[in-house]
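Just curious: can you write whichever protein you like plus the matching structure tokens?

***
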Amino acid sequence: MSTLRRGWRALAWYVTGVLGESDYERYVAHLRRVHPGASVPTVREYWRDRYASQDADPGARCC
């Protein structure tokens, strides 16, 4: 049973990483570590700003 549980956790970790669900938590940890005085945006503000920056500078995307 523990092997199944470890497999499920590994799969969940992979899927959330691919979908970007852990990006906000990593960003907040970065802000607190590197910029301790900065205000932390809400999840909604984070994703709005992230998508706006991707639209403004698409980088290597084709579309």
Observations:
- The helical segments are 2-19, 23-34, 43-56.
- Residues 20-54 form one domain.
